[in-house]
Amino acid sequence: MKKKYMSVAIAALFATAGSAYAQQAAAPKPAAGTSAPASAEKADDGKVESIVVTARRRDELLQDVPGAVTAIGGAFLEKAGIPDVTALADIVPNTTLKASRATNTTLTAFIRGVGQQDPLPGFEQGVGIYLDDIYLSRPQGALTDIYDLERIEVLRGPQGTLYGRNTIGGAVKYVTRKLADKAEFSVKGTLGSYNQRDLVVRASTPVTDGFKLGGTVATFNRDGFGTNVVNGKDNYNKDVTAGRISAEFTPNSSLFIRLAADRTIDDSNPKQGYRLTPGVAPGNEPVLGGNYDTRANLYSVLGKAQQVKTWGHSLLVDLALSDTLSVKAIAAHRADDSVAPIDFDSLNSALFEAPAFYRNKQDSQELQFTYTGSKWQGVAGVFFMKANAFAEFDALFNASGGLSLYTLGDFDTKTWAAFADATYNVSNTFNVTIGGRQTSDKREARIFKRNYLGLAGSPTLGNPAAIALPVLTDMSKSDLSRTDTKFTPKVGFGWKFAPEQNLYGSYSEGFKGGSFDPRMDLGGVPTSAASLAKRKGVEPEVVKTFELGLKSAFNNGRVQTNIAAFTTDYTNVQIPGSVPTFNAAGAVVGFSGSLTNAGKAKINGLELEATARLTDAFRLTGMVSFIDAKYKEWLVANPATLALVNIAGSAEFQNTPKQSANITGTYDWAMPVMGRSGTLSLSNSFSYKSKIYQGEIVKPTGIAALDANVAGAQLIAQDAYTVWDAGLVWTSRDRNLQVALNGRNLTDKRYKTAGYLFGGFFNTVTTFYGDPRTVKASVSVKF
């Protein structure tokens, strides 16, 4: 019934009637060496606000970009009380953004069916995450609370030409604020449910003519949504401290230089899962009543509490060589360090858990040339990145005397690319675009895997008395090395067949490099036929997408609509996993990675976004999206018969609801407070998603190792649900004071967002839930 009402509401919106959630922008040409502002003071012309984006690495009005892009301004994010980027999945078509399982700040992103949820090294993202045009190669620390942002851009579809590797599903861009021309000081404080206590302090000032300094410090704190019923610890709590500093130098109108650094520390407790199945003997614990509660016992690794530290610094130099030609250089270093106690079974015993360490670092350089002439516009450049991703962990099976499965994965990546994208204006109303990117992606891996007997883990992770069993895998970086190269083209057109009607079409490709399974189990025989096949790794993923879209405005700009239809051929889909290994008696004695390529998949979809300013005071925004993602071929060897079996009919795309929708209404009215002019805004938002799977294999395949998780896959799947958010915000006319009351998930809906499927490991199926009902009050003051 909720689905029916949501569909009717969305249909009504489009029948009266896009996707720009920001203040009015007239899209002026920016000063040389700088970037156009995302927003400006709202013009009283009754039109839907416009927004300037850099989706094509140059400043353009969102409605003029020939592609599926949603842009959300920082002011809207704060006014709506959106805590982090995951909430944007409610308002962006065919997009899933969420905290990875058992984590607080690791981001799992899927766009149009493409993504990756396993954060181990060796598994690459399918959606690129960018901070001020700096690619973040690893998902750890990519999910942060929103502060100091100018806007967020979500680009849907393969972005292989301009953004390169691992953007085959799309890209998410964080764009931070530039420093103001005059001295500013602002404070934002928030109090809310579960003892939420947030504070953001921002300051900036000109030091000399053309030189500015600024910084922001923030702390985000909250008690747990649930508790550990055994030890009383908070579960789903938050304890995050973050900061950012920047220096901007503009010696003349042609040159802009920015040096920036940031650091985030997450000291939250481990996020422990909710066990959906009863405990095994001898405890036989019943399923808990509270969805945010747990019995987990693992809270540290080698005496170190859970912690995620993320930091980085960057240098941007933007030089205008002429009125039409500019060059931009970006150099950056990013790193993160995680202590991750992962309790798979969520029981008060060390039955099945994984104390782990993650360490990642990267250095990147990019050089871009941008040309904006009357007939030709475009960007060309080169990109280089050197990165290392490291993880080591024990998988503890503390039954029958204890067994520890120690795994180390150390992956080096070197990638370079040359790219160009150009648009030619055939006439004032018709243009064509052509682009391409040549990428070389080299990956080397050191993988070591060995089992130990003992109840306390391996010698490396704290048990020197552990008894070593034969080595299963010992591969050096010279043993595991591959280089993948790919040219990814893009062609398209834009046709403004009427002043406010922009039709576009495109063909584009995306590429994600091949890799090696970090859980690779060679059985101690590295030269067997099966081992040699595993040592080759998996082949690169490739997507090929045709897209046709229409961006429109009606009623003198009071209504905007964006429609996009796409079809994608997806080949060599990389699917990670783990399967249990057994001894002759049928007892679990370990696990083996099951990274494989699914041969072929087909994805078709339709996306609609709209914004309608029905009166000067009342507006509606909304979106509705449909996607049909199906595996066509996925060949797996049946160990019992050695025959290849096509299991495509038993699989679903994970984290990809077939339908999603949102409708938001906002009413503004003038309301002076204590003699101060201002506006009071009331908003209500309803978001709908159809059924979501958390794993691929959801029906029996006839292969025992895969079918062990089928029942669990149905348990952690989330049925269709709707979430209601609302807000009441007063903003002074000069925008120096804002008071907000925001509520999220006001019906207190329980919905699953992630989970662990280990049906073959002690009947372990655990899940993680989205936030319960929360209400918060915020006050922002700018001096």
Your description of this structure?
This protein has 783 residues and is mainly β. It has a 22-stranded antiparallel barrel. It has a 6-stranded mixed sheet with strand order 1-4-10-11-8-9. The protein has a 3-stranded antiparallel sheet with strand order 5-6-7, with no helix packed on it. A hairpin with a 7-residue loop joins strand 38 and strand 39. The longest helix is centred in the N-terminal third of the chain and has 15 residues. The protein is globular. The N terminus is likely disordered.
Secondary-structure map:
Blueprint: H1 2-16, E1 20-21, E2 52-53, E3 60-61, E4 69-73, H2 74-79, E5 95-99, E6 107-111, E7 114-116, E8 127-131, E9 134-136, E10 149-156, E11 170-176, E12 184-192, E13 196-208, E14 211-222, E15 226-227, E16 234-235, E17 238-252, E18 255-266, E19 274-275, E20 300-301, E21 304-305, E22 307-320, E23 325-342, E24 352-372, E25 376-397, E26 403-425, E27 430-453, E28 467-498, E29 501-512, H3 529-535, E30 541-554, E31 559-575, E32 578-582, E33 588-593, E34 596-613, E35 618-633, E36 635-637, E37 644-646, E38 659-670, E39 678-689, H4 704-707, H5 710-716, E40 721-732, E41 737-744, E42 752-758, E43 764-769, E44 774-782
Parallel strand pairs: 1-4, 8-11
Antiparallel strand pairs: 2-3, 4-10, 5-6, 6-7, 8-9, 10-11, 12-13, 12-44, 13-14, 14-17, 15-16, 17-18, 18-22, 19-43, 20-21, 22-23, 23-24, 24-25, 25-26, 26-27, 27-28, 28-29, 29-30, 30-31, 31-34, 32-33, 34-35, 35-38, 36-37, 38-39, 39-40, 40-41, 41-44, 42-43
